[in-house]
TrEMBL record:
It is found in: Cytoplasm. The keyword Transferase applies. One of its GO terms (molecular function) is sulfotransferase activity. The keyword Cytoplasm applies. This is Sulfotransferase. Residues 34-160 form the Sulfotransferase domain. The lineage of its organism: Eukaryota, Metazoa, Chordata, Craniata, Vertebrata. Its EC number is 2.8.2.-. It holds the Pfam family Sulfotransfer_1. Belongs to the sulfotransferase 1 family. PANTHER family: SULFOTRANSFERASE SULT (PTHR11783). Keywords: Cytoplasm, Transferase. One of its GO terms (cellular component) is cytoplasm. InterPro entries: P-loop_NTPase, Sulfotransferase_dom.
């Protein structure tokens, strides 16, 4: 499993999309502005759906923007190598997406007044969605079976399993700053 991942401070990232230097710059140097909106999610939790909804809210329901601008340009992924330069040069309020765990999130966030939309999905749903997603992608090693993927998920191997505990820490520490919604209790 580890051959297809960049392991950074105990977190696996698909080696195709991520670089150590970009993750470090995201954490240490990236400035979250007060007018920014950050969509913080666990992978395979409905991030793209949420981005589409927020973009429609921002345009008062006008679909022209979402139909003409790719999702990765409307809400770039802070930690990905292609999005980081796009975000630092973007003018005005930014819509930013991230799966980064608490300890890797930009330090500037904690002193900003940025709005955060925090989404958690039932881990069983995340497991199944992740399994089928990763089977179809070439970004990382695919598991041979759902059973194998389940074992990787529980051990914290592969894309995203370890991150769950770290993301929950956002809710626990910044409950007054972060709005969160989940369909499970």
């Amino acid at each position: 499993v580890t051959d297809h991942y960049l392991w950074f401070e105990g977190i696996p990232f698909p080696a195709v999309e991520y670089e150590k230097e970009v993750i470090e710059k995201s954490r240490d140097k990236f400035v979250i502005r007060d007018e920014d909106t950050v969509i913080l999610t666990y992978p395979k939790s409905g991030t793209n759906w949420l981005i589409e909804i927020v973009c429609l809210i921002q345009t008062k329901g006008d679909p022209n923007w979402i139909q003409s601008v790719p999702i990765w340009d409307r809400s770039p992924w802070l930690e990905s190598q292609g999005a980081y330069p796009l975000l630092i040069n973007k003018e005005g309020p930014r819509l930013i997406s991230s799966h980064l765990p608490f300890h890797l999130f930009p330090k500037s966030f904690f002193s900003s007044k940025a709005k955060v939309i925090y989404l958690i999905r039932n881990p069983r749903d995340v497991l199944v969605s992740g399994y089928f997603f990763w089977r179809k992608t070439k970004l990382a090693k695919n598991s041979e079976s759902l059973r194998t993927y389940f074992e990787w998920f529980l051990k914290g191997n592969g894309e995203c399993p370890i991150k769950y505990k770290a993301l929950v820490s956002f809710r626990d520490i910044f409950n007054d700053k972060v709005r969160y919604s989940s369909g499970w209790s």
